[in-house]
């Protein structure tokens, strides 16, 4: 029979340990800690995190307490007589075993969660996530009984480049080159005080919409370099690697609908900080409605349908220009890495429309060929836009058929 | 005398170099080479420090400085990381301190291959030149991050993908050649040139740290060399080791069938041991500094040695914990999580032993000791944050956030630099014959110690909030409340302060060279051999006519009944009577 005192001590310690774990709730949902998130797995991770935190606090107190004590009481000015002990096997065995036990105590629940997080079976919706430099694109595959929803779209940062690159101090402290021209410019600061710009690095044009209360499987890959798909509130991140498909899943409870932001978490080149992602979690009815709406839109969009008028082409073209061209040719068409498009002969001379089409579609020198990525209709829209924006005002309307009828350049 | 080893024979006078060039430029003297290494490493380290200042300026005060844009930011970040890890820490700890201390501590006249040693430095110098040259090539240095992950390292979306990356690969290859020449030398010297009586288990822990780290470097650096060469081939020769079929910025590339993950495995097979290649010499040196200035023997010497060896062994099987979120097999994840947590055990043991070394000592709180104790703080701190990251599932939300930045800066950056400062303040009198200014030293310590805490402690918090690392702009996002913005700006202010503070240290180094008080022989009352040379600073050949003989371990401090509170290693054991029985006795219990 165990002695009573031993029994009491064990009970007390267990209670203490359990209440220590429970005390994790003290800081729940506060903005001063790891985000507890909204899914079961993220909550479990949060609890584990808190358990480790308390272990660390204990070790921290012990080690630093001993050092401080020694520094205060055994310093030279107290004229201490140094001790001569230099080995104690028992002690060393003890403090080898104790950390070992603590570590196993931590590693076990971690493994359980990990196994669960990797198990993507029983998912209701499957979405393929592709990382690009520097945006995300999504393809909705199976949902419930439907093997292919046929919905796909790209997701880019909403804030245009000129805006997020706009300096707080126009021109900067030491203006050079292009920055010199911006000195004294008026600007609206991109801060929390300005409701229009709150989350300007997170908001995107098209939210990824998923249903609440259903298990969603993500197939994550990339087109060019390694990215990382990360929504902090879902509790995990997963690298998007070209040539590989990683899996992950999430299930947001029904009462937690809303928009959840995320960011790319693996260095992917100069636009790494500017490829956010936003997930809109909606109820299952709303999701079905959204799917129906998207599918209807997709059916309407016939690839070769001619534009009714110039305005329709320009509206579509401007969007495409922002997505594909702006990085090299600049928001105002002034050029940069690529040549200027402002009032040049190529842009304004009606005899060179074929050449213009050929360059955009088939590429030339440093200019990549967009023929593979964009449909004829999209090519027509963006070329129409180039020839009418930035003061070019040619009035040229390029139709999808024109693209088809232009012979290959090279 | 039955046999006289070559190293025991009197030094031939005519071997002393006389001309300036032979003495200071193409020198084969390990002490001169060590100083050359130190000066070059400290110079590139300063460059890297300034680069980190630029990064902090952008992060704390976004878009105020027009010379920092997303491209240059990534370039500063990459060069800062690469220089700090490889060209400063590895070179300074092994090339600098290793070179200076190994022959003196084992009691020999020089490295066993002095010519190779000289070559090693000049190759290192060349690698630094190539590295710095990349700042001046078209497109600037690479901005791929110090991890150089393909495909992005060699694609156009990353700054410096034309020339910078080529220079980086070339520089790394040259550095690895330099390190291999140096590392072979350190290992061979420690194994072959120990003086009479210097058994392995009598070596100061500094030697154990340097020895183990050099061995690890010889095993780990080839992985980096191979991956760098393969990366270079993918870029220049169009091979596809790491490149799958991909579309880069709208253009279908010719690559096919490569694996980006293969590079990560190769890189971290080098990268993780590299952490310990830097940390182990620091562990060793700090043990000796703590023991000397606490006037007390190191606690648990044998366990300390075994901990170093075990850490070295384990560090080769933990690499994939850098890749938890890259989607590896579940069993792999579990294996690497386990080994990672196990490596905490010998490391924790070392911390406890350092604390017990201080316990009931006679603690002299001078500058080297302050830095050494500062190291225990920052290292324990970084070790504890490692518990979060090593725990595979808690790592998932924290990977690639500022928590990681805080963790590795505390554990590998600040801690190692603390030891470097401790070591410089500790061994400066030996090298120059002058003491450093104590007042400047203490100011330097307190501002550096508190300053680095002010910089890195808030970064843990930013990581918890979910701020990703390697971001040019943190912006004003859901993950950054207003208070965190203020904190973020304050990090930058403290970082700049810590940077500027280092001027005090540099001034101290230069000023004390001429004006510092002349150092008495063995000013700290240390027991290890490097302080027992016939003249201080040690002359060419170190030991005059006869090599020292070692009779005891390196930690005989405050031995009861002894005249002074230390007994150097070359003082014979009492009652032994035989002057040359070294090597036969066990470690004094």
Summarize the structure.
The complex is a heterodimer of chains A (410) and B (589). Chain A is α+β, with helices and mostly antiparallel strands and 410 residues long. Chain A has helices spanning 4-22, 40-73, 89-118, 161-164, 284-300, 310-324, 326-329, 345-348, 353-362, 376-386, 400-405, and strands spanning 125-132, 135-143, 151-155, 208-211, 216-222, 227-231, 236-240, 246-250, 258-262, 277-282.
Structure report:
The complex is a heterodimer of chains A (410) and B (589). With 410 residues, chain A is α+β, with helices and mostly antiparallel strands. Helix content of chain A is 38%, strand content 14%. Chain A has helices spanning 4-22, 40-73, 89-118, 161-164, 284-300, 310-324, 326-329, 345-348, 353-362, 376-386, 400-405; strands at residues 125-132, 135-143, 151-155, 208-211, 216-222, 227-231, 236-240, 246-250, 258-262, 277-282. Chain A is elongated and about 95 Å long. The relative contact order of chain A is 0.09. Residues 10-30 of chain A have low confidence and may be disordered. Chain B is mainly alpha-helical and 589 residues long. Chain B has a single domain (24-243, 262-532), classed as Cytochrome c oxidase-like, subunit I domain (Cytochrome C Oxidase, Chain A), CATH 1.20.210.10. Chain B has helices at residues 20-25, 30-60, 70-106, 114-133, 164-192, 205-236, 260-293, 301-314, 330-342, 344-358, 367-390, 392-398, 402-432, 438-465, 482-515, and strands at residues 247-248, 251-252. In chain B, strands 1-2 form a two-stranded antiparallel ribbon. In chain B, 62% of the residues are buried. Residues 576-589 of chain B have low confidence and may be disordered. Chains A and B meet through helix 2, helix 3 and strand 7 of A and helix 3, strand 1, strand 2, helix 8 and helix 9 of B.
């Amino acid at each position: 029979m165990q002695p009573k005192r031993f029994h009491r001590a064990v009970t007390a310690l267990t209670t203490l340990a359990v209440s220590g774990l429970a005390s994790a709730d003290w800081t729940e949902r506060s903005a001063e800690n790891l985000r507890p998130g909204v899914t079961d797995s993220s909550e479990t991770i949060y609890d584990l995190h808190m358990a480790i935190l308390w272990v660390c606090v204990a070790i921290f107190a012990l080690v630093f307490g001993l050092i401080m004590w020694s520094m205060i009481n055994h310093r030279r000015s107290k004229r201490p007589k140094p001790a001569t002990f230099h080995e104690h096997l028992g002690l060393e065995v003890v403090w080898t075993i104790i950390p070992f036990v603590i570590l196993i105590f931590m590693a076990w629940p971690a493994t359980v969660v990990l196994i669960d997080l990797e198990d993507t079976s029983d998912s209701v919706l499957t979405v393929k996530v592709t990382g690009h430099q520097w945006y995300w694109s999504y393809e909705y595959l199976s949902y419930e009984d439907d093997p292919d929803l046929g919905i796909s779209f790209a997701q880019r940062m909403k804030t245009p480049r000129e805006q997020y690159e706009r300096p707080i101090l126009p021109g900067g402290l030491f203006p050079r080159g292009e920055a010199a021209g911006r000195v004294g410019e008026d600007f609206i600061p991109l801060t929390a005080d300005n409701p229009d710009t709150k989350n300007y690095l997170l908001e995107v044009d098209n939210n990824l919409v998923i249903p609440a209360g259903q298990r969603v499987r993500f197939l994550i890959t990339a087109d060019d370099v390694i990215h990382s798909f990360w929504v902090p509130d879902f509790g995990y991140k997963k690298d998007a690697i070209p040539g590989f498909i990683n899996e992950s899943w999430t299930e947001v409870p029904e009462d937690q609908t809303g928009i959840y932001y995320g960011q790319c978490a693996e260095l992917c080149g100069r636009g790494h900080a500017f490829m956010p992602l936003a997930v809109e979690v909606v109820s299952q009815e709303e999701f079905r409605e959204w799917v129906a709406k998207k599918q209807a839109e997709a059916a309407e969009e016939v690839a070769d349908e001619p534009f009714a008028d110039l305005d329709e082409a320009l509206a579509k073209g401007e969007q495409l220009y922002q997505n594909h061209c702006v990085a090299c040719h600049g928001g105002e068409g002034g050029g940069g890495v690529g040549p200027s498009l402002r009032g040049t002969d190529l842009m304004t001379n009606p005899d060179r429309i074929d050449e213009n089409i050929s360059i955009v579609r088939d590429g030339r020198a440093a200019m990549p060929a967009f023929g593979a990525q964009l449909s004829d209709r999209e090519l027509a829209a963006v070329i129409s836009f180039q020839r009418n924006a930035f003061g070019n005002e040619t009035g040229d309307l390029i139709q999808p058929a024109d693209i088809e009828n232009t012979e290959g350049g090279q | 005398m039955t046999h006289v080893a070559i190293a025991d024979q009197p030094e031939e006078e005519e071997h002393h170099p006389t001309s300036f060039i032979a003495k200071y430029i193409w020198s084969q003297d390990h002490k001169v080479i060590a100083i050359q290494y130190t000066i070059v490493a400290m110079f590139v380290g300063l460059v890297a420090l300034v680069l980190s200042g630029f990064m902090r300026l952008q992060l704390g005060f976004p878009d105020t400085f027009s010379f920092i844009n997303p491209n240059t930011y990534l370039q500063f970040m990459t060069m800062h990381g690469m220089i700090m890890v490889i060209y400063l820490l590895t070179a300074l700890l092994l090339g600098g301190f290793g070179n200076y201390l190994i022959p003196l501590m084992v009691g020999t006249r020089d490295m066993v291959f002095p010519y190779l040693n000289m070559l090693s430095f000049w190759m290192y110098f060349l690698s630094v030149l190539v590295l710095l040259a990349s700042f001046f090539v078209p497109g600037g240095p690479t901005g791929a991050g110090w991890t150089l992950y393909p495909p992005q390292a060699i694609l156009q979306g990353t700054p410096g993908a034309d020339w910078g990356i080529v220079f980086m690969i070339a520089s790394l290859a040259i550095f690895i050649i330099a390190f291999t020449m140096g590392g072979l030398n350190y290992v061979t010297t420690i194994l072959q040139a120990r003086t009479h009586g210097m058994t392995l288990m009598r070596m100061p822990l500094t030697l154990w740290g340097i020895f183990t780290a050099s061995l690890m470097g010889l095993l780990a650096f080839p992985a980096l060399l191979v991956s760098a060469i393969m990366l270079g081939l993918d870029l220049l020769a169009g091979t596809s080791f790491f490149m799958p079929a991909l579309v880069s910025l709208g253009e279908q590339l010719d690559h096919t069938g490569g694996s980006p993950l293969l590079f990560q495995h190769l890189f971290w097979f080098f990268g993780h041991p590299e952490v310990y290649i830097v940390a182990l010499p620091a562990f060793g040196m700090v043990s000796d500094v703590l023991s000397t200035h606490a006037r007390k023997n190191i606690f648990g010497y044998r366990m300390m040695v075994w901990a170093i060896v075990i850490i070295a062994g384990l560090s080769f099987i933990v690499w994939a914990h850098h890749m938890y979120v890259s989607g590896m097999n579940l069993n792999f994840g579990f294996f690497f999580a386990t080994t990672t947590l196990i490596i905490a055990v010998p490391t924790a043991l070392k911390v406890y032993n350092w604390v017990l070394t201080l316990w009931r000592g006679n603690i002299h709180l001078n500058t080297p000791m302050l830095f050494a104790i500062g190291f225990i703080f920052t290292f324990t701190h970084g070790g504890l944050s490692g518990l979060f990251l090593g725990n595979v599932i808690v790592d998932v939300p924290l990977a690639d956030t500022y928590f990681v930045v805080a963790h590795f800066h505390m554990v590998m950056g600040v801690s190692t630099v603390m030891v470097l400062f401790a070591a410089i303040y500790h061994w400066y009198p030996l090298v120059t014959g002058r003491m450093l200014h104590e007042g400047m030293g203490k100011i330097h310590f307190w501002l550096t110690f508190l300053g680095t805490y002010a910089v890195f402690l808030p970064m843990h918090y930013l990581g918890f909030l979910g701020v990703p690392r390697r971001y040019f702009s943190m912006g004003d996002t859901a993950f950054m409340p207003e208070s965190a913005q203020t904190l973020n700006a304050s990090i930058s202010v403290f970082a700049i302060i810590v940077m500027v503070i280092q001027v005090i240290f540099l001034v101290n180094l230069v000023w004390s060279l001429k004006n510092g008080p002349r150092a008495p022989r063995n000013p700290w009352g240390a027991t290890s051999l490097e302080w027992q040379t016939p003249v201080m600073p040690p002359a060419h050949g170190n030991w005059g006519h006869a090599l020292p003989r070692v009779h005891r371990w390196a930690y005989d401090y405050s031995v009861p009944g002894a005249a002074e509170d230390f007994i150097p290693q070359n003082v014979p054991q009492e009652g032994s009577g035989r002057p040359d029985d070294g090597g036969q006795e066990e470690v004094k219990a």
